[in-house]
Amino acid sequence: MALSGKPIHLGSLDLPSPIRQLSYFSTGCLAGFASLPMAFLPKFPSMTAASPPVLRAGIRFWTFDHIRHILAPLHLPVWLTGGLGGAAGGFNEVLMHSIVQSRKLPPVAAIGSQTLRLFFCFGTYTFLSTTFGDTLPPKPFWKCWMMGATAGATGSSIVAALEGARGKALWGHAMPRGAATIGTVIAVQVTSCANLLDNVDAGP
């Protein structure tokens, strides 16, 4: 049975279609997989260690797209919508991961850190891509990656600084790691998802 391409209407809420939800989740997982080398270097992750980041990225982008649809009628600034979508994605991925893995709610610090980090990361990327990009997602791929990396460095540095990181811990670890991982995750997801949805819309 084919998935529907029509939006889901729940009262006054318009939610993404099932095919769009699957597209965002699957390409989010793909992006999470692509970022594994940056997240685990110099070690090579086992399947057990690699699965959570992959699934968390899928949940992150699935949630992000839901929030964008819910907030669309409010006509908020596009960067704020992106930031709130990212924050919701960060909140949900940490919550789901903790409930599934530990059978308990995550620490407030962990959920707050990821929520705030992705608010800044996704808000910054949305601002950059809509301000300096001629197309969405930005092309070529390296341009999209650079915007994602800038967003990742920004969000990761702000949160790390708020958590007390200084000097090498901030500039030599949090910033470059945030740039590499978030840049890759965002660029791979938005590019692959756009291509997938274009093919779905084109039909057979």
TrEMBL record:
Source taxon at top rank: Eukaryota
UniProt-recorded name of the protein: Uncharacterized protein
Species the sequence originates in: Aureobasidium pullulans (Black yeast)
